[in-house]
Amino acid sequence: MDAYLLDIEQTSDDPDSIRTKRDLVFLLIDLFFAGSETTTNTLTHLFYYMAMNPDIQKKVQAEIDEVLPKGTLPTLDDRPSMPYTDAVIHEILRITSLVPLGVMHCANEDTQLSGYSIPKGTIITSAFSHIHFDSRHWEQAEKFMPERWLDQEGKFNGKRDGFVPFGIGRRSCLGETLARMELFIFSTAVFQSLNIAPPPGTALDLAHDDNQPFFHNAKTQDVYVTVR
Ligand code: HEM
């Protein structure tokens, strides 16, 4: 923000300057929206899936207990020692496909792609959620299976074709590194201390909220939280 404000000041006499306070406000709204709705909803999905899959939740907690001494909060350095937790997070990113159509882009030159001709100026959107359920990449894609991210020795393998939750290329998610960090630190800290379950006698709806066509947001519902 400081750099942006300085630039506005320094280019105030330049009629071609594209920086204005109004533009800065929109950029900040973009960052707050893209940065908070996304991680919040992914974590909410993760909590619902853990609530509905108590065996998987127990495995995550067992891994956390094994790696982190009681009372020690997780750091990113712990991630390589927690392959199962990492696998759960990746499977949540795949199965929920939070941003199913990515962000719209515009072809800035005439382009040929896989036999299709895309004229300059065409608006293009991606079908990330479709890719995440494509049987060429994923067996039993409808199933929540964190193990698909682990090799036979239980080692985590995150490099998979057909996995694009943050988009791809030059305009892929600006916040990917931050989001991955937040997802790991927050979810391990939560499951280190808490159990999450559906309220007694109920089940959670894992489907996304259909009212939001551009996001696969989690539905608002109660969960039952107990201290471990
Ligand atoms: C789980 C969390 C997140 C997911 C799943 C996610 C996903 C995405 C996707 C799919 C795109 C579009 C990429 C494309 O069209 O190729 C995108 C763009 C973007 N994301 Fe994220 N995102 C997340 C978190 C964040 C965070 C934490 C921030 C910022 C702090 C952020 C900032 C942005 C911005 C600024 C863009 C536009 C980039 C551009 O147009 O160059 N995102 N994100």
UniProtKB/TrEMBL annotation:
It holds the Pfam family p450. One of its GO terms (cellular component) is cytoplasm. It comes from the Eukaryota. SUPFAM superfamilies: Cytochrome P450. PROSITE patterns: CYTOCHROME_P450. Gene3D superfamilies: Cytochrome P450 (1.10.630.10). Its cofactor is heme. Heme binds at C173. One of its GO terms (molecular function) is iron ion binding. One of its GO terms (biological process) is xenobiotic metabolic process. Keywords: Heme, Iron, Metal-binding, Monooxygenase, Oxidoreductase. InterPro entries: Cyt_P450 (IPR001128), Cyt_P450_CS (IPR017972), Cyt_P450_E_grp-I (IPR002401), Cyt_P450_sf (IPR036396), Cytochrome_P450_fam2 (IPR050182). Belongs to the cytochrome P450 family. This is Cytochrome P450 2L1. It comes from Penaeus vannamei (Whiteleg shrimp).
